[in-house]
Design brief:
Elements (H helix, E strand, L loop, with lengths): L1 E7 L3 E8 L2 E9 L4 H12 L6 E6 L3 H10 L7 E3 L5 E2 L2 E3 L9 H14 L3 E6 L2 E7 L4 E2 L2 E5 L1 H11 L17 H24 L6 E4 L3 H4 L7 E3 L3 H12 L2
Parallel strand pairs: 1-4, 4-5, 7-10, 8-12, 12-13
Antiparallel strand pairs: 1-2, 2-3, 6-7, 8-9, 9-11
Helix pairs in contact: 1-2, 3-7, 4-5
């Protein structure tokens, strides 16, 4: 069975077309250009590629949800937007109100559990950085949301008169403002990840790392890392297969 998977985040939408578990096509587009996906999907439809199901995670709001529905109009099947549940695909949700957990974080937790099958910290480095824990029994006890690296730098530039969002480089002891901001945002993020990893109480647990800024964070973690760049899409695929 063919299935279209869509991950609408805060800045981009990623998609993949899978058939019997194998990825056939994939792509991405900025949120401001979702209409271009309609043309791309129409081309897939013309080529006879017709998913029987469309499974999506959307954290970008209802207006984006409507654009996604329009982009998928080439196919005669509704878009199924997932929401977090109390339990699904082997993961138990410890949020006070399970449905309030972001659908992207939920899909990522499910994918991470099936990848690691052990206690881990699930980190997505995007517009925001999310740090979510998983126990060795597949229980999600909670997690953190931080500003992403770019957001931290922009907020410093916007809120501090004498600081500019200058390009910087990594330094242990920065001696110019650009390096100080660049290194500071990475150290703040790495410190939060290490703290959550220590609280998990599983010293050998991997950090399942994903997102556009993952390559900037990974060299400084000093933790076992399992890099999975399409974690949300993988989680959507697992959810879709489980609910067929």
């Amino acid at each position: 069975m063919q299935m279209l998977l869509l991950d609408a985040g805060n800045s981009r939408i990623k998609w993949a077309l899978v058939q019997y578990g194998a990825r056939m096509q994939h792509g991405s587009a900025p949120l401001g250009d979702i209409s271009a996906l309609g043309l791309e999907f129409a081309g897939l439809a013309s080529a006879g590629l017709a998913p029987r199901r469309i499974v999506a995670s959307n954290v970008a709001g209802e207006a984006v949800a409507e654009q996604i529905r329009s982009a998928c109009a080439a196919w005669q099947c509704r878009v199924e937007f997932i929401a977090a549940r109390a339990e699904q695909c082997g993961v138990r949700n410890g949020y006070e109100r399970p449905e309030q957990l972001g659908s992207d974080r939920w899909a990522a937790l499910i994918a991470a559990w099936h990848q690691a099958k052990t206690a881990c910290v699930v980190v997505n480095c995007g517009t925001a950085t999310t740090l979510d824990a998983l126990s060795a029994a597949g229980e999600f006890p909670g997690g953190l949301i931080l500003p992403g690296l770019d957001m931290m730098r922009r907020s410093l530039a916007a809120g501090t008169a004498q600081l500019e969002a200058a390009t910087g480089n990594w330094r242990d002891f920065p001696r110019n403002t650009g390096d100080a901001i660049y290194s500071g945002t990475i150290k703040a993020t790495v410190g939060a990840i290490r703290e959550q990893h220590a609280l998990l109480g599983a010293p050998g647990a991997p950090c399942v790392l994903s997102g556009g800024a993952a390559s900037l964070i990974q060299p400084h973690l000093g933790l076992p890392v399992l890099r999975v760049d399409d974690l949300v899409l993988q989680g959507l695929q697992l959810i879709g297969q489980k609910t067929e």
